[in-house]
């Protein structure tokens, strides 16, 4: 009887050990599966956030330069003295001159782009077509300190290159100039002849650029 009891205890002990081993193995397997799942999830997240084709991610956009600084206002017609500058000479039936814009106000102001230019009779009526725009030079903002000057190149076609019947010669009294982005014009006395036929483009104006033409 004692021998059978010892065998029974030994059998129970072995079964308990087997059960414990199975339980531990199961825990280890579950832990390994959880770790693998977590690792796979982290890898998937990293892959999704990485840029394609090995490119580096773009840095955050910097704050705008000078943020918070007051903008320089556009020059109005009343801020400016508008006059004709030194002649730039002539070539191939054209004459080149300059329109100067001098800041007569007490504060800096900005010009950007093309003036509006046309020729008018003494009555104020327009003669011929308004100036077309020359795209030779790209427009850039020009800031004028008080007393500073900017200019725009003006090309005028010689009316004698056209037959009189087509040109319809006329004598203007003024060069009418709108500073860039302004609706009030300045008038400059004008001497010469133009073509009243609006199909002929007698004038071409460039963008405003800093400075004045050196004296000839």
Summarize the structure.
The chain has 216 residues and is α+β, with helices and mostly antiparallel strands. The protein contains 2 helices and 15 strands.
What does this structure look like?
The chain is α+β, with helices and mostly antiparallel strands and 216 residues long. It has 2 domains: 2-41; 77-210, Immunoglobulin-like (Sandwich). 24% of the residues lie in helices and 28% in strands. The protein is built from 2 helices and 15 strands. Strands 1, 2, 3, 7, 9, 14 and 15 form a 7-stranded mixed beta sheet that branches. Strands 6-5-11-12 form a 4-stranded antiparallel beta sheet, with no helix packed on it. Strands 4-8 form a two-stranded antiparallel sheet. A hairpin with a 2-residue loop joins strand 2 and strand 3.
The level of helicity is 10-25%
Gyration radius, to the nearest Å? 42 Å
What is the arithmetic mean of pLDDT?
76
Strand content: 25-35%
CATH fold category name of the largest domain: Immunoglobulin-like
How many helix segments? 2
Q: Classify the secondary structure makeup into a structural class.
A: alpha+beta
Query: Main beta sheet: strand number and arrangement?
Result: 7 strands, mixed
Low-confidence stretches: 1-66
Task: Compute the separation of the termini in Å.
Answer: 136 Å
Order of helices and strands: HEEEEEEEEEHEEEEEE
The outline comes out as elongated
> What's the architecture of the largest domain in CATH terms?
Sandwich
CATH class of the largest domain: Mainly Beta
């Amino acid at each position: 009887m004692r021998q059978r009891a010892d065998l029974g205890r030994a059998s129970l002990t072995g079964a308990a050990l087997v059960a414990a081993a199975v339980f531990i193995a199961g825990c280890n397997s579950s832990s390994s599966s959880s770790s693998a799942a977590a690792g796979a999830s982290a890898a998937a997240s990293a892959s999704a956030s990485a840029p394609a084709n090995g490119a580096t991610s773009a840095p955050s956009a910097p704050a705008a330069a000078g943020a918070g600084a007051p903008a320089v206002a556009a020059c109005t017609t009343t801020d400016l003295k508008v006059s004709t500058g030194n002649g730039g000479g002539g070539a191939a039936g054209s004459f080149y001159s300059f329109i100067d814009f001098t800041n007569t106000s007490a504060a800096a102001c900005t010009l950007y782009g093309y003036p509006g230019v046309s020729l008018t009779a003494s009555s104020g009526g327009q003669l011929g077509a308004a100036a077309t725009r020359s795209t030779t030079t790209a427009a850039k903002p020009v800031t004028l300190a008080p007393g500073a000057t900017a200019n725009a190149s003006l090309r005028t076609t010689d009316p004698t290159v056209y037959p009189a019947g087509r040109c319809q010669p006329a004598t203007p009294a003024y060069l009418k100039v709108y500073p860039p982005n302004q609706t009030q014009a300045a008038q400059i006395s004008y001497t010469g002849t133009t073509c009243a036929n609006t199909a002929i483009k007698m004038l071409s104006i460039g963008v405003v650029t800093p400075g004045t033409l050196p004296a000839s």
